[in-house]
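#struct-help
A.M.: can someone run this one for me? Single chain, 109 residues.
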Amino acid sequence: MSDNMYKTADLVVTEGQTVELEITDMTDDGKGLGRLSGLAIFVAGAVPGDKVSTRITRLKKRYALAETITLLEASAVRVQPHAHTIRTVAAARCSSLVTMNSSASNAKI
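D.P.: on it. Structure tokens below:
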């Protein structure tokens, strides 16, 4: 076992620090998983095979959370969403906002 296995996150990185990672796995909730000196770092917006520049956003005792700043090298499994999909999702979000807003207006009457 690695000596780094028992280090706490604050000994490896600091909140706000920028680090480059290779994403090796993905969590159930869609975050990419990379490691730095044995520390697991969960990265929003990254997929396995990506090389990313990240900013540490939160430290936990045994892991860190980060956000993608720059995609340095895209994974072969990364795909661009179709324009139709983007429009459909955007329209659905807007319509749900309109529905929520209409319900709130009706409640006041």
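A.M.: thanks! Residues 94-103 have pLDDT under 50 and may be disordered.
D.P.: also worth noting: Strands lie at 18-22, 25-26, 32-36, 39-44, 51-59, 63-73.
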